[in-house]
Specification:
Distance between the termini of chain B: 58 Å
Strand content of chain A: 15-25%
Number of strands of chain A: 7
Strand order of the largest sheet of chain A: 4-3-7-5-6
Largest sheet of chain A: 5 strands, mixed
Largest sheet of chain B: 21 strands, mixed
Helix content of chain B: 25-40%
Number of helices of chain B: 22
Number of helices of chain A: 4
Oligomer: heterodimer
Helix content of chain A: 10-25%
Shape of chain A: elongated
Structural class of chain A: alpha+beta
Distance between the termini of chain A: 53 Å
Shape of chain B: globular
Radius of gyration of chain B: 25 Å
């Protein structure tokens, strides 16, 4: 990997009977140097300033115990229930052209993929909730996602061919054949649309597209 | 004629002397003072549990009420000390259960504690009050159940960052209904859910409860219930701080916080939902301690909270605070004493977080009482360090971690020698220092020359030669703990400063260039030191003298070599050394 501290094999020549190869963490561009040789005062050849790629690749910890953080602090970003950085409170003025799926520059690395399953469809999908900034856009996207799948399944089961055309409209208002719900971090199922968008994003763990007719059963479970 | 005060009078006078240092001085005055002092010493602190044996302690001090022990070296926090190294509390607890029936307090740090030991504690000491297990391991919730069930007068149970085998949450229910003495409970490190109703009842019947640190599994919507039961709380650690959609949760939470008029410290905040941050605004103006180091909230939200806290003395936060957040700290928190900024994502090269050296410079300018700093960042410059040093000569603890090993001054590409040199030169009371970045022997020259009060020094990926280590060992008069990793320090400096090692508590060196032969020599020459060589590759027996040791731990001791080491550790045995060579 260019630009990252590399593991380099460092030859250690000492009074030992053999030279030993040791893996040491060196900044990129650093030349091999020997340890335990006669010390030279003054500086090491200063390594070039590392040019890190802007795309964030996760670098596995190649050096034990470095940087010196305790285990409990190592995976704060990945282990938090909100698996990526949470959006800030919505007090900024909305950007002039808020087209669908616009992301601010500070969020460009943010994505919040959650699973979405639909009743009657064996294979689920994943949606990036951060790609939308309101419920309407999410709903249309979900509609698009499953249209294709339903169509494909429709070939197998003749009874659904009639309903596939507009089956996924009305996801949010309870009027369609299907309704969009989400599960929060406690596993409760809640209708999508009740809360401000930002609160929804921060608590939704997965989405489900349920048959509206099944909803009364769903409500019963929650109570 | 010899005038002397009656024993009772001396004892009474000594009772006002609490610092160990002073007590030790008193005991050296004369034999009778030694005798009187040892009978009335009530608190013992053992900084290295292998420096002395349990029986030596109980023999000299028969009437102790409080014991504090530390086990593993500090680098154990970062997985540098292998499994099974040691630090077993068992022999200490057994001995104390025999010798100190009136023991009230046990504090252990980085030790291995078993359920059997916890059970023994719970049944041996009738007046047991305080148990603090800091970064300990080896016990389960069963041991905690015994403590809860049997310690009738328990005041403090603090499991600070310990690794507990979480068998179930039922242990908390073992506190009997008659237990009303609890003042401090910290279960933040526990993974599984404790029975909430048991917790609620326990909190409800503990009118003296001042400190309550919950674990992540306590849901936010239950927090207000607990707060209403304990409005006298001074320090609170929340559980998970998000709850989906509930506005009723929000309003009951803010009402509950309003009722906590004594609340001065907050921590916890896992899984923070920023919409709930406003719920504790009412306590912000009183807060002296705020730990947001597990809260992944971003800059605007953090800044908003911080600006509401003018009385903050301690702030722990993630690097999400960014320079802008730290500017807010510099503006609002004029009473700040301690700042810790942790990395949110330690292993990514570019964290996309605008936290640079500027943030620390701002705080050093704006916060006149700042004395303690722990700062993880990705770039640093000598000029920033010099500025910080000039702004804050009152620093006592300065721990800087530039995340990339050997990173130079990002502006000039030079080593950070001069910057750290300024820190030790200006901050004359500096007691603890951690170095990072590109450093040559020169920085150690500065440290040896100026850091006369330094007690603990951590070095990683630094230096060019033995001269660096020699500067430190010969110059730092007050040095107690030295921990070094991945530095080109070999035998010469150690062997030239052999006497120094006996004035220190301990020295840790790993991935350096100290040879096995030097270890043997050191061990021979210094009978008061344990020289422990750690080699997990299993080749301790076939070592050539000239081969470097993997890890080395040297500490002074009056207890001789320890007998509880795993196979990959050896104390260089002085007798064997004589016969082999």
């Amino acid at each position: 990997m260019e630009g990252y501290p590399k593991l380099k094999k460092v030859m250690i020549k000492e009074g030992c009977e053999e030279t030993r190869l040791e893996l040491r963490l060196c900044p990129p561009g650093d030349d091999l140097y020997s340890i335990g040789g006669s010390g030279t005062h003054g500086t090491n050849c200063p390594p070039k300033k590392p040019m890190f790629k802007t795309s964030q690749k996760r670098v596995a910890a190649v050096v034990v115990g470095w940087p010196p953080v305790r285990t409990s602090r190592k995976n704060i970003m990945t282990s938090s229930y909100n698996s990526t950085k949470v959006v800030s409170l919505p007090e900024k003025a909305p950007a002039a052209d808020s087209g669908g799926g616009k992301k601010t520059s500070s969020d460009h690395e943010n994505s919040l993929y959650v699973k979405i399953n639909m009743d009657g469809v064996a294979i689920g999908r994943k949606v990036d909730l951060k790609a939308y900034d309101n419920y309407q856009r999410l709903s249309s996207s979900v509609d698009e996602l499953f249209k294709g799948l339903l169509a494909a399944q429709g070939d197998v089961s003749s009874s659904t061919t009639k309903t596939q055309i507009d089956v996924t409209t009305g996801l949010l208002d309870g009027n369609g054949g299907y309704t969009l719900v989400y599960e929060d971090n406690e596993g409760d199922r809640i209708l999508v649309g009740d809360v401000p968008w930002n609160m929804f994003i921060s608590s939704a763990k997965r989405l489900r597209v349920l048959k509206t007719s099944e909803l009364s059963v769903c409500r019963h479970w929650n109570n | 004629m010899v005038y002397s005060l009656p024993e009772e009078v001396l004892e009474h006078v000594f009772s006002f002397i609490t610092l160990d240092k002073d007590r030790n001085a008193v005991s050296l005055v004369c034999k009778s003072w030694y005798e009187i002092e040892r009978w009335c010493r009530r608190r013992i602190f053992v900084g290295n549990c292998y420096a002395v044996s349990p029986s030596i302690m109980t023999r000299r001090f028969p009437e102790v009420r409080s014991v504090e022990l530390k086990g593993k070296p500090h680098f154990a926090d970062f997985n540098l000390v292998p499994e099974g190294w040691g630090g077993f509390a068992c022999p200490w607890i057994s001995e104390m259960s025999r010798a100190y029936p009136w023991l009230e307090e046990i504090r252990l740090k980085r030790m291995v504690v078993t359920d059997e030991s916890l059970e023994l504690i719970s049944t041996s000491f009738k007046n047991f009050k305080v148990l603090v297990l800091s970064s300990c391991e080896g016990f389960s919730t069963d041991g905690l159940a015994a403590i809860a069930a049997n310690c009738r007068n328990l005041r403090k149970l603090d499991l600070r960052e310990s690794e507990v085998m979480d068998l179930s949450g039922h242990w908390l229910s073992h506190f009997p209904n008659t237990c009303t003495s609890l003042e401090s409970l910290n279960i933040a490190c526990l993974g599984s859910e404790v029975s909430f109703s048991a917790l609620e009842r326990l909190v409800g019947r503990s009118p003296n409860l001042k400190i309550l640190r919950l674990n992540r599994a306590v849901p936010l919507e239950k927090l207000s219930t607990l707060l209403c039961r304990a409005p006298q709380l001074v320090e609170l650690g929340t559980g998970a701080y998000s709850s989906g959609i509930r506005s009723d949760v929000y309003s009951s939470l803010s009402k509950a916080f309003l009722g906590c008029k004594e609340l001065k410290g907050l921590s916890g905040f896992w899984d923070v939902d920023p919409s709930y941050l406003l719920a504790f605004y009412s306590v912000c103006s009183r807060l002296t301690s705020l730990n947001l180091s597990y809260a992944t909230i971003r800059s605007p939200d953090i800044t908003k909270v911080i600006s509401q806290c003018p009385n903050l003395q301690r702030l722990w936060v993630l690097d999400h605070v960014e320079d802008s957040g730290l500017n807010a700290v510099a503006l609002s928190c004029k009473d700040l004493r301690e700042l810790r900024v942790f990395p949110s994502d330690p292993y990514i090269a570019d964290a996309n977080v605008t936290l640079t050296e500027q943030g620390l410079v701002s705080v050093s300018e704006g916060c006149p009482k700042l004395q303690s700093v722990l700062y993880f960042c990705r770039q640093m410059s000598n000029s920033a360090l010099i500025t910080i040093a000039r702004n804050r000569p009152n620093l006592i603890c300065f721990r800087l971690c530039v995340i990339e090993p050997r990173a130079p001054d990002y502006l000039t590409l030079e080593p950070l020698d001069v910057g750290f040199g300024a820190i030790v030169e200006h901050c004359k009371e500096l007691r603890r220092l951690s170095l990072s970045g590109l450093l040559t022997d020169r920085v150690f020259e500065y440290i040896g020359r100026h850091a006369k009060r330094l007690e603990m020094l951590s070095i990683a990926f630094a230096g060019n030669s033995d001269l660096g280590l020699h500067h430190v060992l010969s110059g730092c008069d007050g040095l107690r703990k030295l921990e070094i990793r991945d530095c080109p320090f070999g035998d010469k400096a150690l062997l030239a400063n052999v006497a120094k090692l006996e004035t220190m508590r301990s020295l840790w060196m790993s991935s350096c260039a100290v040879s096995y032969g030097a270890c043997k020599f050191l061990s021979q020459k210094m009978p008061m030191l344990n020289v422990e060589v750690i080699d997990e590759n299993g080749s301790l027996d076939s070592r050539f003298d000239s081969c470097p040791v993997e890890k080395l731990y040297i500490y002074r001791t009056v207890a001789g070599p320890r007998s509880d080491m795993p196979g990959y550790i050896r104390t260089i045995d002085r007798d064997r050394v004589n016969t082999i060579s």
